[in-house]
Design brief:
Blueprint (H helix, E strand, L loop, with lengths): L2 H6 L12 H22 L5 E2 L2 H4 L6 H8 L12 H20 L3 E4 L10 E4 L1 H19 L4 H8 L1 H23 L21 H7 L6 E4 L3 E4 H7 L1 H21 L4 H19 L8 H4 L5 H15 L1 H8 L5 H31 L11 E3 L5 E3 L3 H4 L3 H14 L7 E11 L9 E2 L3 E8 L8 H4 L1 H25 L1 H9 L10
Antiparallel strand pairs: 1-8, 2-3, 4-5, 6-7, 8-10, 9-10
């Protein structure tokens, strides 16, 4: 493409670097995958959570550390396998087939800068139900030995690697293909406002093309970003949780109330998102961000493997909350979900049908562009009340792990009943037992892992809110400054 042609497809509203620019993009691209591997190795069923050497870093020995983390015998080559690759690719292919084959609703997206709207077929909810139904049938027939669950547990690290490779490949593919975007093309392809800085690392990370699509024989046209947003990773998160539940039952002969709560909460979150799938069309991910490594990695690797850390922890060290513990955690979840869902519903109803009697009484401010901004109800409470609800729910995912941390003690074989307690502070599996899982000196230190999600999610939401603010400043100009006078607080009134 000529320079003149390339300039003609560049968005008019370009903006500067985000995420710390090229250095930040480079650090995130290589640092965050390492975090996923660290979480997998440092908290395990081989030696403990965290591994004993982490408690005594001064006496750390590499050979001992490798044993404690369960490092593969064939080194880095053991981080992947062809069998796991085939399994994951089959899962992605099945997800594509379900999107194409199952009935769904067709919805038009927001208006593009170049004019017109893209069409999206939505059936992620029915697709997920189909997969869960198949898994349920398999579990009914084979019990805890159903190959899906044992495969996930036995190949956990390899699953991270394969999904990471898919995310990397997708980022490279859409980056290379974005240079074929031409002005006035019939497919309404266009570049993202912040993804064409000219810096290769940054543009590859943030995403050059806004809504990359690909035509696949038999399956049809797939919007890559929308597909990754809610399908393989979101459902994969729940499949991981269920595999951990099955492992706990297989090891101890019971399922703890804590892992049940976490799995139910996270399933509610995921299936709520899948049911409300058209709502993604108004999110920054779809309307503003290009599709690059940032979204590919976040959707396919970070979300399923980091968000399920608590369930993985409980699969090895069950925690019984009791009645009052359950009520407390349920209260936190219900409060957060109420704020999250009611505020999002309020916004979506106002955007789609301002005359809806449920929101017709709300006050709003009209901008010079003709858009309306809510100044009462949830959106008069703060500019991002849904983020507050989201963060409160995050606590309900972590609290069931309690004061986390455990050590796996290996010793002489002992015959015990399945699920027996050890000194009131640990568990053993049934039969001829060669190990005990105790909290011991690791108690409390495991919270660095099981509560990592709360800290990370707070940083994520604040950063996302700051990006939203910048986008709204560019979009509404002086009107946004006036709006901020009416709705002063960003997320939590009186604090932020």
């Amino acid at each position: 493409m000529s320079k003149a042609a390339r300039k003609s497809v560049l968005p008019a509203n370009t903006h500067g670097y985000e995420f710390g620019g090229p250095p930040g993009a480079f650090a995130a691209s290589f640092g965050l995958p390492i975090v996923c591997y660290l979480a997998a190795f440092v908290c395990n069923d081989v030696s403990g959570c965290p591994v004993p050497s982490a408690l005594y870093p001064r006496s750390l020995q590499l050979s001992k550390l490798k044993t404690e983390v369960g490092w593969p015998q064939d080194g880095f080559l053991g981080l992947a396998s062809w069998r796991t690759t085939g399994f994951v690719l089959a899962y992605y292919l099945f997800s594509l087939i379900l999107q194409a084959a199952l009935p769904g609703i067709v919805v038009q997206g927001v208006q593009l800068r170049s004019g017109g709207r893209l069409e999206y077929k939505f059936n992620a909810f029915s697709s997920a139900i189909t997969v869960i139904f198949i898994a349920a049938i398999g579990t009914y027939l084979y019990g805890t030995d159903f190959p899906l669950w044992t495969f996930i547990w036995d190949n956990y690290v390899q699953l991270i690697t394969v999904n990471l490779c898919i995310a990397f490949s997708l980022a490279c593919f859409v980056y290379y293909r974005s240079f074929s975007v031409k002005s006035g093309n019939m497919h309404r392809r266009e570049l993202a406002a912040g993804g064409h800085t000219g810096n290769l690392i940054y543009d590859w990370f943030i995403g050059r093309e806004l809504n990359p699509r690909i035509a696949i024989p038999v399956i049809g046209t797939i919007d890559i970003k929308a597909f990754c947003e809610l399908r393989p990773g979101m459902l994969g998160w729940i499949l991981l949780d269920l595999a951990f539940v099955v492992h706990q039952y297989k090891q101890y002969g019971f399922i703890s109330d804590s892992i049940v709560l976490i799995t139910l909460f996270q399933s509610l979150y995921v299936f709520d998102a899948l049911w409300m799938e058209p709502a993604i069309l108004s999110t920054m991910d779809i309307t503003t961000d290009g599709f690059g490594f940032m979204l590919a990695f976040g959707d396919l690797v970070w979300l399923p493997f980091i968000y399920s850390l608590q369930a993985r922890y409980l699969a090895v060290y069950p925690v019984q909350l009791g009645l009052y513990g359950i009520i407390g955690v349920l209260a936190v979840q219900a409060f957060g979900y109420w704020i999250f869902r009611s505020s999002n519903n309020e916004k979506n109803r106002f955007r789609t049908n301002p005359k809806d009697p449920r929101i017709a009484h709300l006050q709003y401010m009209k901008t010079t562009s003709g858009r309306k901004l809510l100044t009462s109800g949830w959106w008069g409470f703060s500019r991002h009340p849904n983020y507050l609800g989201d963060w409160i729910m995050a606590w309900s995912y972590c609290l069931p792990t309690g004061i986390a941390g455990y050590v796996v003690k290996h010793g002489s074989p002992v015959i015990m009943s399945q699920g027996d307690m050890v000194d009131g502070n640990g568990f053993v599996s049934g039969g001829l037992v060669k190990q005990q899982v105790l909290q011991g000196e690791a108690k409390g230190w495991g919270m660095l892992i099981t509560y990592f999600y709360v800290l990370y999610f707070a940083i994520l939401l604040i950063h996302r809110e700051m990006r939203d603010e910048e986008a709204c400043k560019r979009k509404y100009g002086e009107d946004w400054e006036e709006y901020k006078k009416k709705v002063r607080w960003r997320i939590l009134p009186g604090i932020y």
